[in-house]
Structures are given as structure tokens and as C-alpha cells.
Amino acid sequence: MLQDRPDDAFAWIDAQRERRDRAGLVRRLSPRPADSPLLDLASNDYLGLARHPQVTAAAAAAAQRWGAGSTGSRLVTGSTELHTTLERELADFCGFEAALVFSSGYAANLAAVSALSGRDALIVSDAGNHASLIDGCRLSRAEVAVVPHADPDAVRKALGAAEEDTREEAGEGAGAVPARRRALAVSDSVFSVDGDAAPLAALAAACRAHGAALVVDEAHGLGVLGEGGRGAVHGAGLAGAPDVVVTATLSKSLGSQGGVVLGPARVIEHLVNTARTFIFDTGLNPAAVGAALASLRLLRREPERAARVRTVAMGLYGRLTAAGLTAVRPDASVVSVRAPSPEQAVRWAADCRAAGLLVGCFRPPSVPDGISRLRLTARGDLTEEQVGRAVDVIVKTAPTA
Questions:
Q1: Nearest-angstrom CA–CA distance, 43 and 338
Q2: By CB distance 3.0 to 4.6 Å, which of 1, 45, 256, 354 could disulfide with 292?
Q3: pTM, whole model, 2 decimals?
Q4: Which residues contact 112 (CB under 8 A, 6 or more apart)?
């Protein structure tokens, strides 16, 4: 209940906290030690590179050479030769003309979506998209059509309806060629909740039928899908296409931090001049740049790491479903296991932790379908013994419906 005191400006926070408590939706920070004894199936370190000696050594060397911070925005003092090298090698690896590195994957998504749309534009957004894409849509001031999850026909219809509206506004006949309205569809390549992959080829075809661009977030695809981990867009034959833009984070498969936008050179030049999260943000720190570059080079030398992640994910899925649990077949590295309720999901994750296993726990409002689940992330460095141990813990601690 709100207090009557006129000086209690944040009384409403107490009311919201009480509602979260009743719904079982309280979130708490759990600081981890440097050397945790827990078996980790919760982090996004898909390739197991965050602690790789070559990666950590590269981070330390970059900090010693370039400093602990980048000292300013990328357009002032925040761009180093190391940033340029990483951008060039990321573009080459993923098959695009150019790349631009940001301080986070979140910032990269805000930049790509907002700078490539605008007040008079249309954005068609998948209902299962990550929060950063959703926030990019909100900040863009564009008209946003949210369509059912992984449904290319719905994307095509939304783009077509916008063309019809444009004709009507211009007073043109049904057969007239409409004035081109800026439009783009945005989608994750692999969705973070259930780990299912987007139908990228069909999405691209829907966009091209209406002259729209396609923006794809490869946060969970880079390093896992495509030839040698080049991503789902590369695997779909869309890398380097003039109407396709990719965003990604450096904090998952590459074990570092930061984000990147990849696409045609003119798109990247446009972002340099217009993207607020690039222009007004401090550049990514040199240690993170050095670490990401070292991870990328490791992946180039050892492309089998990507296939190993997928093998581990399928192994987890197969064993869990064989034990009677409900899980979503993974297309990449994320394995989603359904829980009966938010409260039981929290208890299940806590019981796993007590048994030495760290797992993710996704509940509303983080999940768009309102279904709580454990979220397991396969890592390419997990052994068969570790996978078996993880499955045993999850099965033994599973709640009854």
C-alpha cells in the first residue's frame, strides 16, 4: 500500500516489490567467485573461450598497450588500431563488406534498428525478439508491426499492407507502383528463450518482395551456426547481401564484451554519422577488443568448436527428453526445459545450484509466452561426463506438475 507521506517519492516502489514477491518474480544478484565449484550451464560462453589462456593473455596485452579504457567516444579518441583490426576481421569472417564495433550488443541493436528506420518508416518485428531489438523499435519512432513468432507469411502481409496504405494515402490505384516507404524486418537468428532458429531465407524473400531490408541479430548464432561458426545468416547464403544487416555480441561465443553491426559499407558509414549509441558512447575498452580478436582467430583455426557446441546441445536435449522432461529441440546452443510455474522454476534452479549445477531460470516478463523454464546453455568445452552429471541433477531435482 502506498504511504501517505508527501515526502516519500518512491513509495510506489514498495508496492511493486510486494506484487513481485506475491508472483514469485523477484530477481536477485548472485555474485560468483573467480573459481566457482559449480558446473556452469547458465553462462553464454558457448565456445568456452572466456578463460582460454590465449584470450585472457590478449586482453591483458591490449590493456597494457592501449590502456584500461578507450578514453572517449569512437569519433574522438575511442578508436584504436585494434578496433579497426577487429572490425576488418569480423567483416571478413562473417562475409560482409564492413563492420562497426560498439560497447555492447545491446547498443549495436539500438543503433542498427533506430538509425535504419525513423519516424516515417515501418518496422516489422518478430514477437519473440530480444529486448534490445524491441527497445530499438521503440526508440526509432517508426510504426512497428509485431508479427507472430517465426512467421514469414505474417512479415510479408505486414509489408504488403503498408504498401496498400501508401497507395491509398497517395490516391493511387491498386495497380500503381507505390512510392517507396522505408521498411525493415528485424529478427533474432536464434531466439534466446527457446533456442529455435528463424527461417532466414523465407524472411529475406518476404522482405525482397516489398523492397524492405532485413536486420538479423546473430547474438546466439555467431560462433555456433554456419560454416565454422560464421553465423546463421552466412549459413542461409545471405552474408554480404546488399539488403541484409547483421548485429552480434562479442560477449557470447567470443567470450569477451561488446557488439558489432555488419553490412554494406554505406550502411556502416551511415551508422558512424547517425547512430546515437555510437556517437555518444565511450568506445569499447581495449582489453575487450583484444580478447574478442583473439577468440575470433582461435575460431578460425579451430572451426570444429562450433560443431561441438551443437553436439553438446543435442546431447542435453536427447537425454532430458528421454527422462520424461519437456524440452525444446535446440537449433543452436540453447536448450529450454519447461517448468510448471514461476515459483517451481525458481526452486528447481535453486535445487540444481545446491547440487552443484548452475542453470538459467527464465520467467515472466523475460519470456513473451508467459511460460517459465530452465534455460541451459551448451558449451563446446563440456565433457561427456559433465553433460551426464548435469542431466542427472536436472532430472533428480525436477518438480512434479
A1: 19
A2: 256
A3: 0.92
A4: 136, 215, 245, 247, 261, 271, 275
